[in-house]
Amino acid sequence: MELVERVLAGDQWAISKAISAVENGGPEGRAIMKAVFPHVGGAVRIGITGPPGVGKSTLCDAITGVLRPAGRRVGIISVDPSSAFTGGALLGDRIRMGRVAEDPEVFMRSMATRGAFGGLSRATQDAADLLDAAGCQTLLIETVGVGQSEIEVARAADCVGVVLSPESGDGIQAMKSGLMEIADLVVINKADRVGADKLEYDIRSAFELGLKSRRETPILLTEAHRSKGVPELVGAIDQFVAACRADGRFEARRRCNMESRLRQIAEFMIHHSLFEVNGASRRVEALAQRVLERRQSSYDAAEELVREALDPNRGANS
Amino acid sequence: MTAKPRRTFRVLVAKPGLDGHDRGAKVVAAALRDAGFEVVYTGLHQTPEMIVNAALQEDVDAVCVSILSGAHMTLFPEILDLMKRKGMNDVLLCGGGIVPPEDAEQLNRLGVGRLFGPGTDTRDIVEYLTETLPVLRPAG
Ligand SMILES: Nc1nc2c(ncn2[C@@H]2O[C@H](COP(=O)(O)OP(=O)(O)OP(=O)(O)O)[C@@H](O)[C@H]2O)c(=O)[nH]1
Ligand SMILES: [Mg+2]
């Protein structure tokens, strides 16, 4: 495929088209992903997550500002929510990325969640794979502004920075399961605001009560809009990744992430084959009618649907 | 979940130049969002290079540019030229601002799409894009 050749050569037009193809689903996107796979895996993936408005985008911009002069090739994917009502989205993360805007070598793509709930979109990891194959060395993956349980990025990244700001709560939040558990690093951004030191103390205290690995979680204070503390953050990320590579955690995590990715893709394929191929909704309608007429049990009807969906010839060209 | 009737269209809304009013651009962005578009909003003070580079990376179907500074006769052609050079021949460039009819005509001849004056009903913009984009870029 010519498009794939161009993606591998780092051509931005081609990367952009390829991301759209995987994002829109369908056979072209799948074919592209099948073709690039031998070239995927070199990039280090940094997840940047945290509640709405804490400064994730600004931080991505500032991190890029540190990595670029060091000669690193950077790709950024930022996810914002789609409307559940209209499907529309306002993708506003670029507004905070002034440095990125001035550096055409940095590939930045905004993605809408399109109905996904984990903080990323269904195609985010495919887009990351494409940027990886295109030669990016560091990928920043910014999630939507998350709550406590949107933690999918943990399965998509080699290192996750959970970004908080002094308004984000106190030590009790830091003790809860969910978001804080996926932090390889905690970033307290907006450190120029009152309460940053208190939050750091609270989080530190909360971590002291936990497992040993928790106690060692680095906590960094940043002021992303003026890059303060950001070189130190980049240093901490590099150090974390290097330590993981050295003691095998990096590989172990990649394996674990890949397992969950395979499960996710397979699940999607089955879902697609169950409900989204041509004629699927008519099939469900017909079976429902049969159940309503008490000619078949709902479980027998559902078993039939699943059997049909798993038929390898089903939906092969849809 | 049902099959999508059509793909989702993506539009970049940008505000080049040095004048600091992006209210108009925000109103358009919100209207397009509510009409089901994915709107990439880049904010103020964008150069033509920044706008086109963002449009390229975002694979948008249309670039909507709001120009109130009077620089439309330089900015639109510059953006269009950069788009062509980057291979974005099927991407719609349209916009809004205070553009006299004879300027608008000249820009249309160059290949710029519809230009909406101040006070345009956002529904007209939504309708224009809803009708134009599926024809211009059916598959993406
Ligand atoms: N005071 C202060 N403001 C900051 C800092 N970093 C970012 N901001 C501001 O915080 C606001 C939100 O920043 P974003 O980068 O858009 O935050 P975000 O987390 O990406 O937001 P979502 O993607 O919507 O969740 C902007 O107005 C930034 O300028 C900081 O260190 N200090
Ligand atoms: Mg953001």
List keywords for this structure.
heterodimer, A: 318 residues, alpha/beta, Rossmann fold, 2 domains, 7-stranded parallel beta sheet, 47% helix, 13% strand, globular, B: 140 residues, 5-stranded parallel beta sheet, 5 helices, 5 strands, disordered N terminus, binds guanosine-5'-triphosphate, binds magnesium ion
**Unreliable stretches of chain B, pLDDT < 50, 5 or more residues?**
1-5
Low-confidence stretches of chain A: none
Helix content of chain B: 40-55%
Q: On the 0-100 scale, what is the average pLDDT of chain B? A: 91
Terminal residue distance of chain B: 23 Å
Summed up, the domain count of chain A is 2
Strand order across the largest sheet of chain B? 2-1-3-4-5
> Major sheet of chain A, described briefly?
7 strands, parallel
| Multimeric organization | heterodimer
Any idea what the CATH superfamily of chain B is called? Cobalamin-binding domain
Greatest interface:
A-B, 35 and 32 residues
Report on this model:
The complex is a heterodimer of chains A (318) and B (140). Chain A has 318 residues and is α/β, with parallel strands linked by helices. Helix content of chain A is 47%, strand content 13%. Chain A has two domains: 39-246, Rossmann fold (3-Layer(aba) Sandwich), CATH 3.40.50; 277-317, no CATH class. Chain A contains 13 helices and eight strands. Chain A is globular and about 65 Å long. The mean pLDDT of chain A is 94. With 140 residues, chain B is an alpha/beta fold. Chain B has a five-stranded parallel beta sheet, sandwiched between helices. The A-B interface holds A 12-13, 15-17, 19-21, 24, 82-83, 86-92, 94-95, 101-102, 104, 107-110, 112, 114-115, 271, 275-276, 280-281 and B 1-3, 7-8, 29-30, 32-43, 46, 49-50, 53-54, 56-59, 86-88, 140. Bound molecules: guanosine-5'-triphosphate (GTP) and magnesium ion (MG). Magnesium ion binds next to helix 4 of chain A.
